[in-house]
Write a structure and sequence with these properties.
- The chain has 435 residues and is α+β, with helices and mostly antiparallel strands.
- It has a single domain, classed as Outer membrane efflux proteins (OEP) (Up-down Bundle).
- The protein is 66% helix and 17% strand.
- The strands form two sheets. The chain has a four-stranded antiparallel sheet, with no helix packed on it. Strands 1-4 form a two-stranded parallel sheet.
- Helix 2 crosses helix 4 and helix 6 crosses helix 8.
- The longest helix has 67 residues.
- The radius of gyration is 42 Å and the shape is elongated.
- The two termini are 55 Å apart.
């Protein structure tokens, strides 16, 4: 039963490996393009940009005149009775019908408001800038998440290669142990140990294969791909090995989208203070109107027809001299908001500098690990080949052979883990640098 199980696991692994080889390679550039074009969160954020652009249109700037038309029709049925004190005949007329109508056109235009209109327009433009930087930040966050998943898949692919090599070694050891046992040179314990190690290595392979499948589905959630039949490019290079941390910090402070958005927010709050300072400014409005009124009465009325028309032009001004302290209150609130915006900017700046320094230290540790583990791989490779030779000659036990095998596997795994870890740090630094 155990042999059948091993054969089934081996078949699963071989079929999975064949499928991976046949898969087309999805590059990191293609992933970034798919995220930008397809991601739903990014599409929703673009709607906020459109809304902010509408607020900056000419129809929301206050420079367009307003015009209105009014009209009306009416019917009247009245009666008149007049009794005089002198020698005049009384007047008594009933059921007097009258038809009337009116039409008018009015228009107004704000000529001067102390600069409030201009300040509000500048504030809307600043809000649009902030929305665009926020969109860019969301795009960078999604790209950052996609890159993390992508390179984690690459790390898992490295693990598959290492575990596949380890499984081949365990299978060869199992065959040798079985042969030795059949000829009476080894006991059953060696065969069972080798069999267990084959099973363990096979299960590790299956586990990593499942991890890759799950990671691909996570990547698909960001790129909206519909299947996992693709491979990733594992031939990435490390680009920050010769970088200067001071230059990286300088670049981050001028290019980080979160910092830029917070800086724009300080500018936005300044406009609130400007608007508050102009709340009591006088306003001058130009007005114009044309009206036509018409009334036609019945023949029994004293007045048969009445029509009036006229054009009116004028200027009106209002100045709110005393507002109960509202302008002063608004200015104070704007000042508090501005101070809070500056504090938020400085806090984020300090946070990013700390984060960059932490990443740089971790990056250097990964580079050091790479150099050390590269030497360890060479040493463990030599040791493994020596132990393997002694084991085949019956001079080493299966336990020592397995330990040498695991030592080599661990050194290789730690090397690739450090390499992928360094790349993931580079991805995070790219995010901080606004790339």
């Amino acid at each position: 039963m155990t042999r059948i199980y091993i054969c089934l696991v081996s078949f699963f692994f071989l079929s999975s490996t064949a499928r991976l080889v046949a898969q087309a390679t999805l590059s990191i550039e293609e992933v970034m393009t798919a995220v930008i074009e397809n991601n739903y969160d990014l599409q929703a954020a673009k709607q906020n940009i459109e809304a902010a652009e509408l607020l900056t249109s000419k129809y929301n700037r206050g420079y367009m005149p307003t015009m209105g038309i009014n009209a009306g029709l009416g019917y009247n049925l009245n009666g008149v009775k007049t009794v005089y004190n002198f020698n005049f005949p009384d007047l008594n007329i009933q059921n007097i019908q009258a038809y009337n109508g009116n039409i008018g056109v009015s228009s107004s235009y704000l000529l001067y408001d102390g600069g409030q209109r201009h300040a509000r327009n500048d504030k809307n433009l600043a809000s649009l800038d902030i929305a665009q930087y926020q969109l860019e930040n969301i795009q960078q966050q999604l790209s950052f998440s996609a890159a993390q998943i992508y390179y984690t898949i690459a790390q898992a692919v490295y693990n598959i290669d290492l575990l596949a090599e380890s499984l081949d070694i365990s299978k060869d050891r199992y065959k040798r142990a079985q042969t030795y046992y059949d000829y009476g040179n080894r006991n059953k314990v060696d065969v069972l140990n080798a069999e267990i190690d084959v099973s363990r290595d096979s299960l590790n392979l299956i586990s990593v294969e499942n991890d890759i499948e799950n990671l691909k589905w996570q990547l698909n959630q960001l790129t909206l791909r519909g299947d996992t039949e693709y491979a990733v490019d594992t031939s990435f290079v490390l680009t920050y090995q010769l970088a200067d941390p001071r230059e990286l910090e300088s670049t981050m402070l001028v290019a980080n989208t979160e910092l830029i958005a917070l800086e724009k927010n300080i500018e936005l709050v300044k406009y609130d203070e400007v608007i508050a300072s102009k709340l009591n400014a006088p306003q001058i409005i130009a007005n114009g109107a044309y009206n036509l009124n018409y009334q036609k009465n019945s023949s029994i009325s004293q007045l048969d027809l009445n029509r009036t028309n006229g054009l009116n032009l004028g200027l009106s001004a209002n100045w709110n001299i005393l507002d109960g302290g509202q302008r002063k209150l608004q200015k104070q609130l704007a000042t508090v908001d501005q101070q809070a915006a500056v504090i938020a900017y400085r806090n984020k700046e300090n946070e990013l500098v700390t984060q960059l320094n932490r990443l740089w230290n971790s990056y250097q540790n990964n580079l050091l690990t790479l150099r050390i583990e590269k030497q360890n791989i060479a040493s463990n490779r030599v040791n493994f080949e020596l132990v393997k030779s002694l084991y085949e000659n019956g001079q080493q036990s299966s336990v020592e052979f397995r330990q040498a095998q695991l030592n080599l596997l661990t050194a290789q795994s730690q090397y690739y883990r450090a390499r992928t870890g360094a790349k993931l740090i580079e991805v995070e630094m790219d995010f901080l640098l606004g790339k």
